[in-house]
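Intended use. Records like the one below are meant for learning the mapping from a protein sequence to its folded structure. Do not use them to infer anything beyond what is encoded.
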Amino acid sequence: MELFETINTRYSAKNLKTDAVPRDMLEKILDAGNHAPNHYRVRPWRFFVLSGGARNKLGDVMAASQLDRMPDAPKEALDNIRALPLRAPVIITVGVDKPVERK
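Structure written out for the chain above:
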């Protein structure tokens, strides 16, 4: 499949497998992410692999963020948001350690 076809036909799946992700597959994914290019060639990516109870903590943060934006949000809506990270057995989050610009 060509790159643009892949990008243009991708979709977000609602129903995810609950199978554990093998460690060697996670390592391949993280290694590929570490090789993503950036302007400064410093690989500033920081990956966090969330599983188990860490997914619950992420759900709590997501619900709190929604509540900050919508103080009148119904409890059911917040519970639905809180449950979103529990759909997948593993979540990889990405942060960036912003490089200092060279002068």
